[in-house]
Amino acid sequence: MHNGTKDNRIRIVLFDEAVAFGGSVVVLAHLLNNLDRRTFQPLVVTSLDASSIQQLFRGEDILYWFRPRLDYSDRVRWMAHGPTRSELAKRLWAYLFSAAQSLANLPGHLAMYYKVWRAKPDIIHVNNGREGLLAARAFNVPLLFHFHGMSPGLIFGTYDTRFVAAAFVSISRFISEEAIKLGVPRDKIVDIPNPAPRVTISQARRLEWRRKYGIPDDADLLAHVGRLIRWKGQLEFLKAFRRIADDCPHAFVLIVGDDVEGFSTQYPQSLRALVEEAGLGQRVVFTGHVQDVLGLMSAADIVVHSSIEPEPFGLVITEAMAAGAAVVASRLGAPSEIVAHRVTGLLVDPADEKEFSAALAELVQNPARRRQLAEAGHRLALDRYSPESFARQIEDVYKTISARSERTR
Q1: Tell me: the pLDDT tens digits for 270-322?
Q2: Residue 96: how many CB atoms within 10 A of its CB?
Q3: Three-state DSSP class for 63?
Q4: In contact, 296 and 223? CB cutoff 8 Å
Q5: What residues does each domain of the chain span?
Q6: CA-only gyration radius of the chain, Å
Q7: SS3 for 302?
Q8: pLDDT tens digits, residue range 116-153?
């Protein structure tokens, strides 16, 4: 445990390099809100904007606010405007950005590392990003790495984490198996699914949200929640909805989210174009980013998840269940670990337009069936995905790492 002060709590520095509101920071907020502060002292290094920090975290928990001058979203845009024909030219283009990024962010990095060194953490918990890995290695602090997704870069970039990290937390069995394929020792991985929030559901709130977007009180309302990027599958959802629109005249759609990282405007434009071409402009509403997304989901009858690539977890699924909506979800990746098909929701292949549209029509046209699924999903969210249980499981990992560190001193 931390020495040198009267505070004997286990001191955790948590790194999250997300520059925009997303799943990893929501999960981090759940952890901090439910952490046993008599035993643990959390200190956060974050790159979020000021309004998101204020919404998600306590002021006293912020160790360092690092706003990089060049971040991963800048890298995506840089590479999109680089050479495309020559592999050598593309590599040189990438190296040029990396050099510029290192120089531009160096002052902030030095200040951040100094803050971490002064904090004298007992554990560094990397929730998102890689800067915390460097700090853990530089200051010889036990490392907990949180897998919110999986790619070789997470394991091998900067340095090989497989045998350096004290432990890994994985958000799903799907991600754990992907990590094991890349050589992460199975005995270092702890499967801890993301938590679902407690949501207050009220009819008055439900109607307030609907009226805000011009949705009739008695409409069958479907909501798709997620960043407007290709792999989230809004296009597949809208194609499936177009297929059932004439037979379900009381069905309306909310497309909730935006391209908050600014990678591209082409995809959002293609979604709007499809809606206009199908003559559905009066029944499909693009809300943009919504701060109280849980409140909005509580106004929906059905929440749709349609990722066309394997989903690491699918936080929107458990959030929708907690908000009392019936769920139609992609079966690709981890959602099949959450949703029991035809028991707590419906699983589909978003690329199969016929199957997808049939699932939507089944729930739109059968209110009793969707209420049955919504109630079963709500019970599941309360029982299996509570924020309190999530925090206790993370605390157990912290205690194991801390005890092991004490023995080796």
Answers
A1: 999 999 999 999 999 999 989 899 999 999 999 999 999 999 999 999 999 99
A2: 12
A3: strand
A4: yes
A5: 10-195+386-408, 203-384
A6: 22
A7: strand
A8: 999 999 999 999 988 899 899 999 999 999 999 998 88
Amino acid identity, position 115: K
User: What's the residue count for the chain?
Assistant: 409
Collapse the DSSP code of 151 into the 3-class scheme (helix H, G, I; strand E, B; otherwise coil) and give the result: coil
Q: Are 150 and 179 spatial neighbours (Cβ–Cβ below 8 Å)? A: yes
Half-sphere exposure for 255 (CA within 13 Å, toward CB): 28
DSSP-derived 3-state class of residue 100 = helix
- CA distances to 198, 229, 255, 359, 380 from 295, rounded to whole Å, are 11, 23, 15, 24, 19
Phi then psi dihedrals of residue 210, to 5 deg: -60, -45
383-388 contacts: CB < 8 A, separation 24 or more? 384/193, 385/193, 385/194, 385/195, 385/196, 385/318, 385/321, 385/322, 386/195, 386/196, 386/198, 387/30, 387/31, 387/33, 387/34, 387/195, 387/196, 387/197, 387/198, 388/34
List the CATH code of the domain at 203-384.
3.40.50.2000
- The enclosing H or E element of 403 equals helix 387-408
Structure tokens at 306: 């349609």
Look up residue 294 and give its amino acid: L
Give the 3-state secondary structure of residue 330.
strand
Closest-CA residue to 395 (of 4, 3, 34, 17): 34
Q: What is the largest CA-CA distance in the chain?
A: 70
Q: Looking at domain 10-195+386-408, which of 3.40.30.10, 3.40.50.720, 3.40.50.2000, 2.120.10.30 is its CATH number?
A: 3.40.50.2000
